[in-house]
Amino acid sequence: MEIQKITTGDSHELLVSGRIDGEGANKMEEEILTTMRAGAKNIYVNLNSATFICSAGLRVLLQYWRQMKNSQRTLLVTRPSAEVDAVLVTSGFREMIVEKV
Amino acid sequence: MSAALSVEITLTNRPEERPRLLEGLEGFAREHRLSGAVRQAIDLALEEHFTNILKYAYDDQALHTIRVRLELDDRAVLIQIEDDGRPFNLLARPAVNTAVPLESKPIGGLGIHLIVHSMDHVQYERRGEKNFLSLRKQLTEPPASG
C-alpha cells in the first residue's frame, strides 16, 4: 500500500493506493496522525486507487473521523473505488463519503 | 489438463503469513478464472477471519497451524478454515446495526459483519479441540477452468 500527500493550505489530501488490510490500516493510521499533528483542518482520504479495505481500515477511518469532528475539523473519504465503496456502504459509512472536494 | 478443484493453504498464527494466504487465494482464483467480485468477497472473509484468529484464538505464544481449504464446484467456492484456538462461534455474536450514525457507531466489531455479508452461507462447528468455519460463495457465472 502507498500513500501520497497533497497539501493545500489547511487541507490535506491522502491518496491511498493498494490494499488497506491489517498492515495497510496501521500505515494509514500513522499518516492520518502525522497529518493531524501538522495542524490539518480538513483531511480528505482519497480511496480511488485503493483496491481493498477490511474492518481494520474502517476502524481507523471511524476513529479519526470522530476525533477530527470533536475538534471542529473534518476527515472525509473521497472517490472510493467500486470495491472499497461496496464495503463502506455495507458497513454504514456512507455519510463519510463526499463526492467531490 | 484440468485445474485442481481444491487447494489447501497451511499457515501458522503469525501476521507475516498474510501474503501466503493472499497468494494462495489469487492462484486459485486465476486458475479457475473466478470473477473479481467473487475473489474480492473471499479475500475479505479470509482476511477478517485470519485477523480474528491472530487476535483472539490463542493465549500462548506458541506456533499453531491454521488450515484453509478452497474448493470449487460448478456453482460455488467452498471455503473451510480450521484452527485449534479457543471455541469461537462468530454466528453467536450479536448482529451489527449498520444504520447507527457514525457519531455513535462502535469502533470495531465490523469484521464478523463483513464475513457474513460477503458470503452466501456461513457455518461454524466445534469438533474436538478445533474450530471449523465453512463458507460458501456462489459463482456469478460458471467457472472457466480446464
Shape of chain B: globular
| Main sheet characteristics of chain A | 5 strands, mixed
Q: Let me know the number of strands of chain B.
A: 5
Mean pLDDT of chain B, nearest integer? 93
Uncertain runs of chain A with pLDDT below 50, 5 residues or more? none
- Overall mean pLDDT of chain A stands at 96
Low-confidence stretches of chain B: none
**In DSSP terms, counting alpha (H) and pi (I) runs of 4 or more, how many helices of chain B?**
3
Q: What proportion strand of chain B?
A: 25-35%
Spell the H/E element sequence of chain A. EEHEHEHE
What is the chains' assembly state?
Answer: heterodimer
Q: What's the SSE pattern of chain B?
A: EHHEEHEE
Rg of chain A (CA only) = 12 Å
Strand content of chain A: 35-45%
Strand order of the largest sheet of chain A: 1-2-3-4-5
Walk me through the structure.
The complex is a heterodimer of chains A (101) and B (146). Helix content of chain A is 41%, strand content 36%. Chain A is α/β, with parallel strands linked by helices and 101 residues long. In chain A, strands 1-2-3-4-5 form a 5-stranded mixed sheet. Chain A is globular and about 30 Å long. The model of chain A has no long low-confidence stretch (mean pLDDT 96). In chain B, α2 runs antiparallel to α3. Chain B starts with 5 loop residues before the first strand and ends in an 8-residue tail after the last strand. Chain B is globular, with a radius of gyration of 16 Å. With 146 residues, chain B is of the alpha+beta class. The mean pLDDT of chain B is 93. The interface between A and B is medium-sized, with 22 and 25 residues.
